[in-house]
Predict the 3D structure of the following.
Amino acid sequence: MVLQSSLKNCLQLSCIFRTPKAGFRSTTTGGLIIQSISHDVYQNLAVEDWIHDHMNLENRPVLFLWRNSPAVVIGRHQNPWQECNLRLMRQKNIKLARRRSGGGTVYHDLGNINLTFFTTRKKYERMENLKLVVKALKGLRPQLDVHVTDRYDILLDRQYKISGTAAKLGGTAAYHHCTLLCNADKFVLSSVLRSPYRGLKSNATPSVPASVKNLFEEDPSLTCEMLLDAIAEEYAAQHQIDHHISLINPADETMLPGINNKTKELQTWEWVYGRTPKFSISTCFNLVYQDSVLDVKVDMDVKHGRIEVCNIDLPEQWLPPALCSELVKSLTGSKFCPNETTALTTTLPRVCPQDSELHSRWNLLCENMTMLM
Amino acid sequence: VCIHRVRSCSSIRFIKSKYVCVFDKSALKFSHQQRLFRTSAVSCGQIVQFKLSDIGEGITEVTVKEWYIKEGDSVSQFDNICEVQSDKASVTITSRYDGIIRKLHYNLDEIACVGKPLVDIEIDASKGLASEEDVVETPPVSHEEHTHQEIKGLKTLATPAVRRLAMENNIKLSEVVGTGKDKRILKEDILNYLAKQTGAILPPSPKAEIMPPLPKSETVPAAPKDKAHKIPVPVFRPIVFSGKDKTEPITGFHKTMVKTMSAALKIPHFGYSDEVDLTQLVQLREELKPLAQIRGVKLSFMPFFIKAASLGLLQYPILNASLDESCKNVTYKASHNIGVAMDTEQGLIVPNVKNVQVCSVFEIASELNRLKSLGSTGQLGTNDLNGGTFTLSNIGTVGGTYAKAVILPPEVAIGALGKIQVLPRFNGKGEVFQAQIMNVSWSADHRIIDGATMARFSNLWKSYLENPASMLLDLK
C-alpha cells in the first residue's frame, strides 16, 4: 500500500528523527523510504536540507518522495531573470524557489513527482539511482521506451525529456534528486520557463532547454501514485528493506528540530533572488508619449540582487535632469524588484513640483523600468 | 583562551601520572611534542595547502561558484570554504583546519582541479590542536572509528584532538554537551564535564585535595604555574557581551520613508483628536457583512470611514487640497482619492481608492480587497500608489488609541484611527451603557487649515459614523 497514515508510522519515524534514546528498528537498517504530506516547495526543500545536515546515512540511505503545487525551481547558481517569466509567475501566483543543488530550472506541479536519493558521499552514485527509476518504470509498463542518457536525463521515446537531475554534496552526506513528469501542465511549463527579459549578461549556470512529454500522454492509465509506488517498491527490493513508505510532516518541529528556520530561510528574498551571481542588463525600450516615440537606453549592473550601477539614457530635456539623477540615485542600492521600484518611484513625485505633465512622463518611464524586473 | 586550554591540558596529564599507575606512553609523547611546539612557536604559523579533495564519479574538474571566505579571514575546522559545481552537482567544501586564509587559488567561475591546492591556510601553532593530527602519532584506534563516531544515529561533531582527549579520559562523547558551532564538542566542554565528574573519573583519594606546588623542572610556562596543579574547576569567566554594532545602508522601502518624511517635516502640523461612538455602526456592519460575503467581498469598517470622510470633504474641500512649493497657490482637488496606509512585509505603503466621491460603500470595500491582496503579494502598480489626496491610517488594527500621524506630501491632512474599545459611557437618561469607542487623531497643515475647519470636518465625519442612517441623506 502506498499511503499508510496510521499513527504507528508517525511514531516509528519520530524515533528515527529525534535524538533517539531507543536504538533503531530492524526495518530501518539498510534504508528508509519517506514521503512528504506537504505540497509546499519551500517546506519540502527544507526537508532535504534537514536530512542532509542531521541524518546519519551510513548504511542507511534514504529515498524521499515529494510533490509540489505549482512552482518554478532554479538551481543554486542560476539567474531567475534569465530562466523564467517572473512577471507571468507573479500573475499566476506560481512560486519561485532556489534549491541548494546545482543544475537547471524546472517547473513543478502536482503532476510531477520528485525523488531524492540520500547517501553518504562515498556511496553517491547518480547513474545507479536513475537506472533504478527506469527499472521501476519498465516493471510497471514494459512497453515504455525509457532510458538514461549520459547527461543524467531520462528520455522517453529517445527524444522527450521526462526527468532532470541535480545533486548536492556536503561534508559527509550527499543527495541526488530528480523530477519525473507524469501529468504536468505542459502549457504552463513552457510559458513560465521562457524568459522575456532581454539584454542580460551573466555567468550564471544556464539551463539547457528540452522537449518534454508526460508519461500520461504515452499511457493514460498511469498516475503519480502508481509511479511513486513502483519506484518505492524497486528501491525497497534493491536495498532489501520493507516496502513501506513513512509519511512526514515538514512543519513538525518536534520530529525535525530546526526545520521551520530552514523553511523560512529558503523563502527569504536574500536567498531566492539575492543569491543570483552578478549580472548586467543592457537594453532599450520605446516610450510612446503624445504622438511621439522616444528611445530609452538602460544599463544596469546587479549584484546580490541589488542594483549596483544604473544608467538611463533619455532624450534630452524630456525630464528635468535633476529628476533623472534623483531616479538613478534612488535605484542604486535598491533591490532589482518591481515592488520596491514601484514604491520608490511613486514616492519621488511627492517631493517635487506638482506638474501633471511631468508626473505622467515620470510614471510612463517608471512603469517601463519596472517591466525590466 | 588558548593559554587556558594548554594549561588545563597539562594539568590533566599531571593528575593522571600521579594517581594512575599505568599511563599511556603516547600521551607522554604527545605532551612532549606539545612542549616542543610551544617553545619553538613564534608569531608566524605554518602555511598548509588545502587541496581540493575527490568529488567522486571520476570528476577531475569543477567550477568555483561562490567563495564563503576571503584572504585574511580566520576559519575553524568544518567551516564552509566555497561552493563548486560540476555537471549539475553542487558541492560544499569545508575546511579541515583551524587557521587564517592566506591565499585563494581561484577566482569565481574559474575551473579548479581535483588534487590541486584550493586555498592556503596559515595554521597558528600555538592555537588549537587540530593541526597536530599531521605531526603526532594517532593513538592506536582506527581512523574510521573516530571520524564517523555514531552516537545513536546522530553525528557528534568533535575534532580528532577532542576525541582523543575524551578517549584518554574514558568519556563518552554522547554524554558531553557540545557548546560549539552546530553543537560541536569543544575541549572546554570535555574539561567542564571532567570537572563535574571529578569524583567519578579520578580514583578517589584524600590527597586529591592537597596539591604540592609543581617542581621547576616541569616545562610549564611561568605565569600560570600556580593554577597548573589544582583540580580543574569550571572557571567563572566574566559575562562578556560579544554583540557588535552593525551598520548597513538604507535601501528600498526605508529609503522612500526617509524621503517622504523629510519632506513632510517642512509642513507645520497641528493635531486634533476626538472619540467616536461606533455602537450603531458595529451593529450595522454585522448585518451587512453576510450580504457582502455573498457577493464575494470582505467588509471591514474602513469602507464606512472612507465614505464618511469623502462626504465630509464635500463640505470642507480645503482638506482635499494641495499647497504649491512656493506656498502661493492652493489647488482644490476634484477627486477624492483616499489613501489607506498598509503594512506589508517590506514596509509601509499607501495605495489609494480613486474617486470615492462617486463610489458606493460596497465598491469601496471591493476595491480595498483588491488593493490588500495586491499589497500582500507585492504587486501594487504605479496607478494604485499615485494620485492620493487624503489619507486614513488604521493603526488601531495593530493597537493604540491616540497617534500623531505625519502628513504625506503633497496632501494637507491625515487621520489616524485607534482601536475600538468597549467602554462605559452615559446615555441621554444618565444611565451607564456599553459603548464601542474609537479614537481618531487628525493632523493637518496649519499653513492653510485652521483648527476650526478641522474640528467641524471631524464633527461631521463623527456624526455620520455615530448615526449611520444620516449618511443616507447625503449619499450621492
Summary: The first helix of chain B runs from residue 2 to 19. Confidence is low (pLDDT under 50) at residues 1-43, 128-154, 199-228 of chain B. The first strand of chain B starts at residue 46 and ends at 51.
